[in-house]
Amino acid sequence: GKLVHQPKSHYEIPIAIMFLAELDAEEYRPQLETLGKGMLELQMGHGGYGYPNEPDGDVSQVQYVVLAMWTLDRSGIELPLDRVARTLAWLMRVQDPTGYWPYHGHDPGIGRGLETQPTHEMSVSTCLAGGSAVLISSDIFRLFGQVSLEGNGIEGLPKALKPVEKESLIDSRRKKAPLPREAVLTATGRMDSYRIANPFKRTGQADWFYYMLYSLERYESFMELAVGKVSQVGWYDQGVSMLMQAQDSTGAWGVKDASKNGPPVSTAFAVLFLIRSTKKSIGKMSSGSLAGGYGLPADTTKLVVKGTQIKGEPAAAAVTDLLDLLEADETDKVNESTIPEDLKLEADPQRRRQQLSRLERLVRGSQSWQARRVAARLLGTSDELSVVPALIFALSDPDKPTRTYARDGLEFISRRFGNPVSSDTPPDQQVRMLQQQWAAWYQTIFPDYVFLDSINN
Fold it and tell me: In the structure, what pLDDT confidence band is assigned to residue 428 with cuts at 50, 70 and 90?
């Protein structure tokens, strides 16, 4: 079908694309293809996107459009790369020489160099929106890809599966990019210098603080992908600290402080920041991806292809099946690397509670390190406060990966609110102190809870 465009289509279509791709990209493939075509119809002559009555493109809108482009590409839905290239080139042209991106970018034209951009409604948010959009669209061209699928040198690839193209997807994409990787990093470096010289400050007046944090997490997540390492700057901890101070007693944000976003939107942006939503999306969309070139699952004896995503057949298709294996001492059939990343606990509260109880028993008492390791991992992704005591107990597990899963789970569930700093391999003498710190945090939420594992002794 053909879409009927509305004034907010630049936002609505990308959000619909991301939503359907998250639900099931294959099931909703026809709808995603229609939405993708409809989105491209909105592209302006200069390559950007914006409201019909405004000739200059809108950097904020473009951020959503390129994220939708990236989502379609990672879902295996083909995009006309020349259209992506035009958007990326426009973004590069409308950056101010000092490093910032404006809200509305005035295009100086191809080959004319950077020109001074308008500062009207310019903010750190628009800077981050522009920088994010540049990194996202660059990744569509695999400018930051680290693994090539060229030849037969893929570990574990069955001999029956051979690349059809003579050149890797990463190399072919890079050849179609409108600029090299170095130019992108130069632009983001210019923007980072501007941000350092002009840091975000809250003045008490209504601002875009929550939208800024939402864009910051996206920018930093794609920057980690671009440079191949986690940022050492404490941007996340700083954001968490500011959110702790701004949160209302009801749990919402944007209530007691002045924000241009209402409480529902402010709270949504805050939560997306806290859970590192972009980083999760990058991991999910890139893992096992043929198109992305980020490698194949460890067990490639049985492969399942879903769009451009290649996944190994899991040892257990559901948590209940997995628990049956673990409790039956059939742990030789289970390896945590073969468990699907999107394995979900039961939605029904009663059955979910039963699953969590079984996992807690395993992590506390199983003689199998495989069982304890898998249980700690699943408990840590449950986002349930009730499993925190079991994870605190697992911090002293003799198996290092089990301890790591327990630590990561505690940090995820707590959203790092008041979490202690811990190393991957804490010395034995620090384990008890680490457990006590986490127990103290838990008792700030449940003061009457009594730990029976002698943690507080």
Answer: low
**Which residue is it, tokens 């690397």?**
337
Handedness of CA 422, 424, 427, 429 (dihedral sign): positive
Q: For the chain, percent helix, then strand, then coil, each to nearest 5? A: 50, 5, 45
Euclidean distance between CA atoms 88 and 105, whole angstroms: 13
Residue 107 sits at the vertex; the CA angle it makes with 105 and 112, to the nearest 5 degrees, is 135
Across 269-408, the runs of DSSP E, i.e. the strands, are 303-306, 309-312
* CA–CA gap between residue 29 and residue 20 (Å, rounded): 9
Give me the mean pLDDT over the 352-357 stretch: 86
Distance between alpha carbon 321 and the CA centroid of its chain, in Å? 28
What is the rounded CA–CA span in Å between residue 373 and residue 360?
11
Amino acid residing at 275? I
Please report which confidence band the pLDDT of residue 310 belongs to, taking 50, 70 and 90 as the band edges.
very low
The Cα 312–Cα 297 span in angstroms is 6
* pLDDT tens-place string over residues 40-51: 999 999 999 998
β-sheet bridge partners, residue 305: 310
Q: Is the pLDDT of residue 298 over 70?
A: no
* Residue 159 confidence (pLDDT): 43
For 226, what's the count of Cα atoms within 13 Å in the CB-facing half-sphere?
28
The token pair that represents 191 in the structure block: 């923007």
Which pLDDT score is estimated for 375?
A: 87
Overall size of the chain counted in residues: 457
CA distance 87 to 206: 31
Residue 311's beta-bridge partner residues? 304
Does the pLDDT at position 450 exceed 90?
A: no
Neighbours of 411 (CB within 10 A): 17
Tell me phi and psi for residue 306, to 5 degrees: -130, 100
**Phi, psi (deg, nearest 5) at residue 56:** -80, 145
> With contact defined as beta carbons under 8 Å apart, do 188 and 143 qualify?
no
Residues whose CB is less than 8 angstroms from the CB of residue 423 and which lie 6 or more positions away in sequence, other chains included: none
List, as own/partner pairs, every contact residues 28-33 make where C-beta atoms lie below 8 angstroms and the sequence separation is at least 24, other chains included: 29/77, 29/307, 32/72, 32/75, 32/77, 33/77
82 or 305: which leads in pLDDT: 82
Q: Which two tokens stand for residue 416?
A: 């790092």
Q: What residues form DSSP beta bridges with 304? A: 311
pLDDT of 183 above 90: yes
As given in the structure block, the two tokens for residue 142 are 């695999």
Tokens representing residue 208 in the block: 């875009």
Give the residue among 204, 214, 181 at the shortest CA–CA distance from 258. 204
